[in-house]
Amino acid sequence: MIHDSTELEQVFTDINAPMQSSTLPRWQRKALQRSSKTNTPTKAKGKSSSKAGNDRFIPKRSAMDMDVSSFLMKKADSADENGDTNAYQKKLGSLFGSESAKEKGHRVLAFKNKAPKAKEGYHQAKVLYSQSSMSKNKRTVRMPPRHIPSAPERVLDAPDMLDDYYLNLLDWGANNTLAVALYGAVYLWNSDSGEIEELMNLEDENSYVSSVKWVKEAGSQHHLAVAMDSGAVELWDASKLKKVRTMRGHRERVGAMSWNSHTLSTGSRDTSIFNHDVRIAQHHVASLVGHTQEVCGLEWSPDGSTLASGGNDNVVCLWDARRCHGTVKPKYQLTDHNAAVKALAWCPHQRNVLATGGGTADKCIKFWNTSNGALLNSVETRSQVCALLWNPNEKELLSSHGMSGDNQLCLWKYPNMNKITELKGHTARVLHLSMGPKANTVCSAGADETLRFWNVFGGRERSVSKKGATSLSRRHKSKKLGQLRLR
Predict the structure, then answer these.
(1) What is the DSSP string of 346-379?
(2) How far apart are CA 465 and CA 483, in angstroms?
(3) What is the CATH number for 288?
């Protein structure tokens, strides 16, 4: 109880006085710590003789890197479990710092320096935890690298094959039969038996076959479309070696054809593209007008919704199947190439992606989004692109080349387009590519009048048949032409 005014005044004075903390400010604690180290060298390092030594060390969490700490702790535990004492001590040393670091005043888990900034696209957490002890029981299973032979499995002579960039003289059907046009004749090579048959031969020695294409529709896989330099298109039943019908309409040669179910699209040097419905007598159902020079490439998309055409006018046209009746204008015209566009290939892994290859003045492979006509990528190949073919099993693209190059085949990894390998053997430009129904062997046809068979899309399981022949020629009439001769 307060008895007089003096005591009451003293109370109010104490209340108004500033509060004094029992803990010294940080700068005073540091000063005492330094003086303690200087005056008492025999004392344990890191301890202070003042009250400052009783204060707890509270790290600054904003400066901590808990991922790094956890990573180092787990690596140390892993080394300890394995009995590696030196590695264990080394890991702990990297975590808690060396003696020299302690002498400099650093504490346990000093967070003075922040981790360097990660590169763009690099996720640090993935790298940290993928190397921890938790990943020992979850190991990634990697497939062995695919063997890609650098030499062809077989070589066939193809005398009288025309050296013409704008024609399409090779096609491998779903019936495992290869159709090859040699000037005015068409030959069928059975991949299963190795036998060769002559399908047809033009009577006029000055006339030639300009394109061949197998029907893809189930139940009609033995039917082959054969186009002439006159503009006529014939439909043949290969199982009976019999002509079914002739379709006319083009004024000049037909160098490119493509099937979409029962509809056959044909591209001509007269700049037009016709759609033929082979089920009806009046087969000409649509005229597609968009090119100003010869049409040398045609390819329907796998879903049958879009037709891509390439021409000597350096233009790629995209046609909507829903509007292919009467006279039709293209949905998109793609004009980024600087030379004729013959090579066309739809991507089997991404819908609405089309690969196109340009001629000698262009030398580029370009990728398009056909839903809006946008150019996705362009790759310089340094040589004429004659043909393109996708690997249905891997994200890879095969291209064949001619002028300004080494007459090679190039296998590219999609979408980064890193070159995997080059296949050499042809002595002249490689004009045509076609893939067998088993999707492992590819046949290439060159201006050197040879066919070469490459196991480029297979390789994990090699199965090479020894049956075959040495030559495809309109001068030979026998079905079996001899044993395979490798070059």
Answers:
(1) E-SSSTTEEEEEE-TTT-EEEEEETTTTEEEEEE
(2) 12
(3) 2.130.10.10
Same domain, 186 and 318: yes
Q: What are phi and psi of 311, to 5 degrees?
A: -135, 170
Element (H, E) at 271: none
Helices (H) and strands (E) in the chain, counts: 6, 29
Looking at the DSSP bridge assignments, the partners of residue 209 are 228
Residue burial 172-196, b: 16+ Cβ < 10 Å; e: rest: bbebebbbbbbbbbbbbbebeebbb
Domain total of the chain? 2
What separation in angstroms does the CA of 379 have from each of 340, 358, 399? 16, 11, 12
Residue 325 tokens read as: 């009746």
Does 86 share its domain with 231? no
The DSSP bridge partners found for residue 390 are 397
Contact 169, 432 (CB under 8 A): yes
Instruction: Show the domain range for 88.
Output: 69-97
Backbone angles phi, psi at 174, to 5 degrees: -70, -15
Question: pLDDT 10s digit of each residue in the chain, 487 long?
Answer: 545 555 555 545 555 555 555 667 777 888 888 877 666 555 444 444 444 445 566 666 655 666 767 776 776 666 555 555 565 555 555 555 544 444 444 444 555 566 666 666 554 444 444 444 444 454 555 666 788 999 999 999 999 999 999 999 999 999 999 999 999 999 999 999 999 999 999 999 999 999 999 998 877 889 999 999 999 999 999 999 999 999 999 999 999 999 999 999 999 999 999 999 999 999 999 999 999 999 999 999 999 999 999 999 999 999 999 888 889 999 999 999 999 999 999 999 999 999 999 999 999 999 999 999 999 999 999 999 999 999 999 999 999 999 888 999 999 999 999 999 999 999 999 999 999 998 889 999 999 999 999 999 985 544 344 444 566 654 443 333 333 333 3
- The Cβ-side half-sphere exposure at 167, using a 13 Å CA radius, reads 25
